[in-house]
Amino acid sequence: MTSAEDRPDPQHERPEGIDDATVSALGKISEALEAVEVARGHLYTFHRMSGTADLTLGEGVDALREAGHGELADRVEREMVGRNVLHGRWSFQIVEEYDDGYYETFRRVERELREELVEGRRHLFEAEMKEDRRTHGKAGHEARPVEGDEGDQPG
Question: Helix 20-66 crosses helix 104-118 at what angle (to 10 degrees)?
Fold first, then answer.
């Protein structure tokens, strides 16, 4: 591989005139957005598990009724089946509010900062860390994928 091919994609190189402090600050903001993405994933897990719990509870209520405990089954059904997980909300409503509010706002602000400061480029801090840490010219340490070459990566 020639040295020209062993360079990062231009989208992962800092634009002319951008200082280390700016790249570092945007890296921290990107890191925060990644934490928000993980939190969102956990929120979707909460949503899925809450729905699964309600459906499973319904099955348990049916089984309780079939076992001859109709009054107890009715009580559990009235109090718990289909109950809001927060005041006025099922879990899907929590997810929607989070997505439409905090999550979308955070993504927009982070994107606007990148557009204004570094021509919209993403992960500059990490890309520069990769350049610093990789062994140039060594298989498995390429700057970027070479089209049609899967290299030594597991498949």
Answer: 160
